[in-house]
Amino acid sequence: MATPESTIEIGRRILQEREQLANTCQEIFRNTIEILGDKGTIRGIAPLKFRSLTCTVNSTEPPIAVRLYVGGANLARASSVRISVEGINEVLCVERKVKKGKEIFSGKIQPNVYPRYSRNLDLREASGYLAAIKQLTKELS
C-alpha cells in the first residue's frame, strides 16, 4: 500500500508550481511587449488608444491568425497583455501588478462567449502560450 503524500510536500509542490506559473507569465508578458514594440501599431482615438498586432503564422497548413494587444500606447506602463489565437475560443490575459516595488505576474483565460467570466491559467496552458509566443517571435524576425 502506498503511503499518502505529506501535506507539507503537497504545499511545497503547489508553491513551486505557482512560482513557475508566475515566471512563465512574466516571460509571456515581456516577449509580447517586445513584439508589440517592434511590430505593433497604435490604434483608437485619444483616450482609448491601444497597440495591437495581427499576424498569420504559416508554419503548417492551415495558416493561423494570432492577435496581440495591449491597452494604451505606452508599453512601459502596460498592466496587461492579451493574446488571441484563431480556432481557440479563449483569450489569454496576462496581468502585471506592482506591489511595494515588486512586480507580480498572473494569467487568466477568458472565453470569447462570456468575456466577463474568467478562470485562472494553469502551468500547462501557460507553457503552450509561451511556446506560441516564441514561435511567433521566430517567424517575425
What are the main properties of this structure?
single chain; 141 residues; alpha+beta; 7-stranded antiparallel sheet; 2 helices; 33% strand; globular
Report on this model:
With about 140 residues, the chain is of the alpha+beta class. The chain has one domain (about 5-140). The chain has helices spanning about 5-40, 125-140, and strands spanning about 40-45, 50-55, 65-70, 80-85, 90-100, 100-110, 120. A seven-stranded antiparallel β-sheet has the order 1-2-3-4-5-6-7, covered by helices on one side. Helix 1 packs parallel to helix 2 (about 125-140). The protein is globular and about 55 Å long. It starts with 6 loop residues before the first helix and ends with a helix.
Largest sheet: 7 strands, antiparallel
Strand residue percentage: 25-35%
What's the number of domains?
A: 1
Query: Total number of helical segments?
Result: 2
What structural class should be given to the helix and strand makeup?
alpha+beta
How do the strands line up in the largest sheet? Answer: 1-2-3-4-5-6-7
Rg measurement, Å: 17 Å
Oligomer: single chain
Query: What is the element string, with H for helices and E for strands?
Result: HEEEEEEEH
Approximate shape = globular
Q: How many β-strand stretches?
A: 7
What's the pLDDT, averaged over the residues? 86
Give the termini distance in whole angstroms: 55 Å
Helix content: 25-40%
Query: Can you tell me the residue ranges where pLDDT is under 50 for at least 5 consecutive residues?
Result: none
